[in-house]
Structures are given as structure tokens and as C-alpha cells.
Amino acid sequence: QAQLVESGGGSVQAGGSLKLSCVASGYTLEDCGLVWYRQGPEKEREWVSSISSGGSAYYTDSVRGRFVISRDNAKNTLYLQMNNLSIEDTAAYFCWVCRKYWGQGIQVTVSS
């Protein structure tokens, strides 16, 4: 049973940056696809970005060019670097790993 701990969220002004981390324990992420989702206020959970076991990265259109997903297999950690944040990025962000385990979610709030 994996345990996932997310960190790096918080409040930031529009145009700012944050870097989210999702650290796994009890399970090795090296061979897994890793995913970030988010759920904004009164919105459905939406896919944000994915990274394959081989390092290929994919992004939803609204974040492409601003967000960078990465992984450090040695640290069993998934990252999401978020730049040029906008109010529309305000959401709880969740990591989903190996098509099986969810992180607890971490809040990102962007203000004008």
C-alpha cells in the first residue's frame, strides 16, 4: 500500500510560481506513469499533466508552456513546477500514481 505525501502548495499572486511535490513511500514509482489532477471550486476534477515511466510528458492545453512535470525515481517523487500562475489555476491538486494511488490533495490559491 503506497502512501503519498504532497507538498509545495499555498497562496501566490498571479504571475507567480509554485512547485508541487508528491513523495511516495511503500511503493516504487519507477515503472509507473504518474499524473497530476486538479479540482477547482465547484468544478469537476480535471487532468493536468502526465509523465510516463520513460519520461515523456503531456499537458492539458491550459497549462502547456507554463507547467513542467518531472520525476525523480531515486527520490520516489513526482513534481509539478507551475509558472505564470493565473487565478484559473486555483484548485486542489492531486497526484495519481501507477493508476492506483491518490495523494491527499494540496491547495493552490492564486490571487490577483
By DSSP, the count of extended strands is: 11
Radius of gyration, CA atoms, in whole angstroms: 13 Å
Order of helices and strands: EEEEEEEEEEE
Share in helix: under 10%
What distance separates the N and C termini? 40 Å
| Main beta-sheet annotation | 7 strands, mixed
Which residue ranges are poorly predicted, with pLDDT under 50 across at least 5 consecutive positions? none
Q: What fraction strand? A: over 45%
Class per helix and strand makeup: mainly beta
The count of helical stretches stands at: 0
Arithmetic mean pLDDT: 97
From the spread of the alpha carbons, the general shape counts as globular
Question: Explain this structure to me?
Answer:
There is one protein chain. By secondary structure, the chain is mostly beta strands. It contains no helices and eleven strands. It has strands at residues 3-7, 10-13, 18-25, 34-39, 46-51, 57-59, 67-72, 77-82, 91-97, 101-102, 106-111. Strands 2, 4, 5, 6, 9, 10 and 11 form a seven-stranded mixed sheet that branches. A four-stranded antiparallel sheet has the order 1-3-8-7, with no helix packed on it. A hairpin with a 3-residue loop joins strand 9 (91-97) and strand 10. The chain is globular and about 40 Å long. The N and C termini lie far apart (40 Å). The model has no long low-confidence stretch (mean pLDDT 97).
